[in-house]
Amino acid sequence: MADNNSVLTVSIVTPDGKVYEREDARLVIVRTKSGQLGIMPNHVPVIASLEVDEVKVKSGSDVDEIAVNGGFVEFSNNNLTVIADSAEKQGDIDVDRAAAARDRAQKALEIARQKHDNQEILRNQVALRRAINRIHVAKH
């Protein structure tokens, strides 16, 4: 294995526990509230809020994709930690379940728009983004 200064240790955790861990990553790509961020070994320390999006972890020719539903990323000393409400590795995503969640969110969003219920509109927009993100990650 390469020395500790040329690789990243990556952990993704949720309230239910650790979802993902890798100790030999060369690049991690996340989407923060400020835009896309690529982190390589020896990057300056970072703390940022995450969007609902995928986290890509690259090591050599391997690329792992994890659907993350918001949260935070913290990086220092070549250790990157994502803390999220929920996260799923690409191979663990049930596409049929995600598609059903997308359809439910779309229907509920349309009803909320007809009723001009802004809270329900926002809630269902988030649910829709999460479902679409899971489908997107699963199909890569």
UniProtKB/TrEMBL annotation:
Keywords: ATP synthesis, Cell membrane, CF(1), Coiled coil, Hydrogen ion transport, Ion transport, Membrane, Transport. The keyword Electron transport does not apply. It holds the Pfam family ATP-synt_DE. It is a peripheral membrane protein. Residues 95-122 form a coiled coil. InterPro entries: ATP_synth_F1_dsu/esu, ATP_synth_F1_dsu/esu_N, ATP_synth_F1_esu_C, ATPsynth_dsu/esu_N. Residues 8-87 form the ATP synthase F1 complex delta/epsilon subunit N-terminal domain. One of its GO terms (cellular component) is endomembrane system. SUPFAM superfamilies: Epsilon subunit of F1F0-ATP synthase N-terminal domain. F-type ATPases have 2 components, CF(1) - the catalytic core - and CF(0) - the membrane proton channel. CF(1) has five subunits: alpha(3), beta(3), gamma(1), delta(1), epsilon(1). CF(0) has three main subunits: a, b and c. Produces ATP from ADP in the presence of a proton gradient across the membrane. HAMAP family: ATP_synth_epsil_bac (MF_00530). This is ATP synthase epsilon chain.
